Amino acid sequence: MAKKKVFVSFDYENDRHYKNLLKAWDANPEFDFYFSDISSEEIQSWDIPTIKSALTTKINQANYTLVIVGEYANTQHKDCKQIGYKNWINFEIAKSKANKNKLVAVKIDSDYTSPDELLGAGAEWAMSFNRDAIIYKYIQEIEAKLTEEMKPFEISREGECASPEPTKYTITFNSDNGTAVSTITVTSGNKATKPTNPSKTGYTFVDWYKEATLTNVFDFNTAITANITLYAKWTAVSYKVTLDANKGTPGTTTTITVEQGKTVPTSTTGLPTFTGHTLVGWNTKADGTGTGFVFGDTPVFADITLYAKWTINVYIVTLDANGGTPGTTTIIKVEHGKTVPTSTSTTALPTFTGHNFLGWKTKADDTGTGFVFGDTPVFADITLYAQWSNISYTVTLDPNGGTAGSTTKVSVYHGQTVPSSISINNLPTRMNYQLLGWNTSADGKGSEFVFGTTVFADITIYAKWTINVYTVTLDANGGTPGTTTIIEVEHGKTVPTSTTGLPTFTGYNL
């Protein structure tokens, strides 16, 4: 009777057992099987197409396939995509099923997980074995199984042989708006293979968590015993916004961390300062020719340096005429640290009748600080007060033919009057004349000037004299008075010969 041809599918991580088994069987002349996969050539493990072709040929030549389940029989092979199955054992079982080989399986240890393709394949199972006596136990138990007819564990409704279906669970992945991750089906008690990490614009994937609250990280070495949903945890990608004071003084805040797509908070404090300047915004270039950036409005998508955009402060210099009449310029705008242009002096000059303009000070009462156009820098809004001195006029007392008194000149401020006390003391004199007053003309034909008159300019006033007049009384001396008894004669003059109305005395001649 011809020997039955057997193909052996084994856990490649435990091939020492496989090789020992083949040697033992080959040494047994009564063994009723031979193996179709004994080859004198060593196939390179990286040559996947050649391996697949060789295995397919040998499986097709066999009547039986013996599946030896080792520790790594259900792990994922690094070349699984090229193999087309999870690993080589699954590939070999699938090809054996396609060739209608009878399947016999044995576990080296009872707790090892069976290959996925073996489940539901109607395979007969040999007992598990003790590794210390593995060769002889294999011979006894496996030979018995190989010579038996296949016995199904259960009969399906269609009458086909089928093994009991193991319980399977699904792992659903909630990627929280990240790229979708396909659901994984895992046999009860098996471990799930961690899928490729999802992606999400503006975020970095952290891990899969057991709860929606993202409290506990899921360990993919955990045996699956129920349907579960895993939740992706993300951390937002953050960028650094650097604030450059751009010639100013940096504030306490020089860098701000902003999540991708978010804006710099408008509540940001600790911004830079620049004496004499006002911060009016930010720009991507120091010279302000870049793109404007607005806190609370411009989204951030990369690390960025922003440059403070400054405008120099402009102050108001107010000119107060301080009792005078303002000039045509009363308000001047001056940049921080600059001076009031000297060209403004003329239009800014106020006037005050009877006063001389002395300059400007910071207080109206002359106690302030002097301020000079073109020289004094401005660092704040300021009011300047015109400083004045009263104009003093000279009133010259001309004796006008008389003898000057001790006072010949009187100084009088504009709008003031000559003190009346001068009219009593130290006035000019003129022999045989009386001082009647003062006139603006020597001939007395000008305007009368009375002490107490307001003065608005230099002026010379002339003494106005009247000659002394004497009384000549005519006494009839016993005669009869005439119609003229009194005659007034100016000093040094004579009684006129033409005088009439003289007295008479009968019998006498005057």
TrEMBL record:
Q: Where in the cell is it found?
A: Cell envelope
Known InterPro entries for this protein? Answer: InlB-like_B-rpt, Listeria/Bacterioides_rpt_sf, ThsB__TIR-like_domain
Task: One Pfam family, please name it.
Answer: ThsB_TIR
State the signal peptide span.
Answer: none
Q: Where is the Thoeris protein ThsB TIR-like domain?
A: 7-111
Protein name per its UniProtKB record? Thoeris protein ThsB TIR-like domain-containing protein
Source species, please? Answer: Potamilus streckersoni
